[in-house]
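Hey,

The postdoc asked me to send both predictions to you directly instead of through the lab channel. I've kept everything plain text so nothing gets mangled by the mail client. Protein one:
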Amino acid sequence: KLMVTGECFCQDNVPVILDAYSVCGEMEAKYTEVEFEKICCSYNENIICTAQNEIMGGSIGSIVDMWCEVGNVNTHFSNETLTMNGVVKAFILLYDANGNAFFSEKPIDFEYSFNHDGLGDKVYTNPQIEAINCSYTITGENSIEIRVELKITGGIYEIGKMPMVTDIVQSENKPKNKENAAAMVIYYAESGERIWDIARKY
């Protein structure tokens, strides 16, 4: 049996209303600050971490089995670098030279860095880290070298907020007075002014 997990993300342009006005009558627009997020980049890499393990209690006769589990992982963003720090635990079942069974546990620290383009102030990532391979080499009478291969995948998401129009109330009892409206208005715009703001004003 296989358990397959994944994360889907659809990035699309969504039309929204940022401002509104009426040329017919008084109107009230309700603005709500809406939070949204977008995926900026992704990472998918394998790293190797190694450690030396000293077996207490006697010399090594044979290794029966070894397996690994990934513990808690901390993430940190600094400038244009994402850094992850964590611990992977190696569990070893072995016999000593006299045939006695031993169990050993070895925590191995690891660090992974990923460079990305400059992002906003509010970003996050949810990495998936899996130990895909572990091996060993007996380096002495009671010592072994452990090698663990980790697969690190995930995406970096940026969270933003924007005020949007979520409701409009048009007053039918308060029409705009157009009797004194000019047939043509000549307006000299200044640098940085938007056509929308000028139209809204007049």
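Protein two:
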Amino acid sequence: AAAVTASSAASAPAARVRRVPAAAAGLAPLSPKELADAARLRDKGINLVPAVAGGSTLVVSMPGGKAVADADFTALYPFAPRIEELSLARASVTDAAMMSVPSMPSVLMVRVDNTQLTDIGITALLSRTLEAESVNLVGSGATDGIFTMLAKLPNLRRVYVFDTASTGIGIDAFRARRPQVEVVVGQGSAGVGNADGPPINP
């Protein structure tokens, strides 16, 4: 194999540093019992896996899709402090379920794409996930009203809003208020590495 020269090493892109949520800093690694409890939720169509091997936080997805309803969603509540990524994509959860969501201070990514959630439920959820850096609203019931809540997320870096009822006026107003946040409005938007747009699969 060719030797790596100093110049080629210098030109290599730097690896992205994973931000550890402040709330997760004091958490002990997931115990065998917690991992076993998380694995049992697969029967409900909910998948919880460690964010990193031997870590203290979890990544949540819902491969059960529309079969995952409000009653199933509440099974996540005991894991709330440990959830780092929360995807409700394609689940049948409603605004009513979002009203009782506990605080999830370690969540950095929220996905409600392709759900029936409206501004009411999404606002309730985001008010419990204030550390979120990325929010995916694609195909949800979001409107311009959600920008009020998005503006309150201090670490927000990116929000996906295409296939929603958000308008150009609302998007422009939010961009003026939070110019450092990338607002992805469609496939191939500036700043999106994937030419087909952001992923929407759980």
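Summary for protein two, as requested: Residues 168-177 form the longest helix (10 residues).

Thanks,
C.
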